[in-house]
Amino acid sequence: MSVSIKDVALKAGVSIASVSRVLSGKPGVGAQTAERIKQVIDELGYRPNLGARGLVKRKTGNIAVVVPRGSYILNNPFFSTILDGIAKELDETEFNMLMSFTSVQQQRLLETQAVDGAILFSPRNEELSMDWLKSLAIPIIVVGSYLEDSPFPCVRPDDEEGVCQSVTALFDKGHRTIGLVNGPMSSMHSVRYYKGYERTLKSLGLTMNKELVFELDEFDGGKVVEVVSQFLQGNQHMTGVVCSSDFLAIGVMKAADIANVSIPHDLSVIGADDVPIASFLTPSLSSVHVDLVGMGRKAVSLLTQLVEGEQLEKMEHIFPMYYVDRGTTGTPKKK
Description:
Elements: H1 5-12, H2 16-24, H3 31-44, H4 50-57, E1 62-66, H5 70-74, H6 77-90, E2 96-100, H7 103-111, E3 117-121, H8 130-135, E4 140-143, E5 154-157, H9 159-172, E6 178-182, H10 188-203, E7 213-215, H11 221-233, E8 240-243, H12 246-258, E9 268-270, E10 287-289, H13 292-307, E11 316-319, E12 322-324
Parallel strand pairs: 1-2, 1-3, 3-4, 4-5, 5-11, 6-7, 6-8, 8-9
Antiparallel strand pairs: 10-12
Helix pairs in contact: 1-2, 1-3, 6-13, 9-10, 11-12
């Protein structure tokens, strides 16, 4: 039998209006009374009727998490870790999470006004029309990569600083031929990583060798293995490589194994984002850490503010990155 707000009020010895105020976070209920109401809510397992509330507030109680390129993104621990943060933060709200993985689902979910707001995972210009997104007139937060000239608030890592720290860490260990494994340039994350790589090489007095830059069609670990293993089996002339994601770095590690190249003795490898699995690999993966769970939580916090009609102080929320030295980096072999 379902528990009603009236049941909560009777057991707590208060009015239905008092319970309603506590549920909505409105003032007018004393601290001790509010605490008693919350205890009764927990004891009875009461859950507000979001459908009925939506009729009053003209809200659905749903938040969309839009995932373009579903299989690529969900297989990438960068996004699954952020998703964990989103879920944790949503648990502390009254919102439900609805996810979409295809363009058809995305259009259905957003155009039918089935949600109060949306979190977009790394959208690209060729996938989602800016004019269409703006025409929806719902709050939107972008996570990870972002649309160029986007009107939507964004939560992302400090990509350029991350790659700068990675390249500098290899340079400080004595590396002078440092490559880059990157995603597609349709991704602003990849663009920023490339720019940061190029800028850091120049600041360190190193010449960029285009042969050491591997630009992939997608953040696909399997493709990395194919491309990098072929390179390593040929005229291998780089001692270190930085990658724009840990997922790509894991692909490089597999490619090195196939090419019989020892890590870190023959090749040092650094990933990006420091996903949970990085420290469990053998050797453990050096990376640049960012608080991925915190990014997910921040995205939800910002979106709920927008849904409630609040104004955000700034459009970009950039999370710092810092280098973590582990087993995949060492000094280059002396010739």
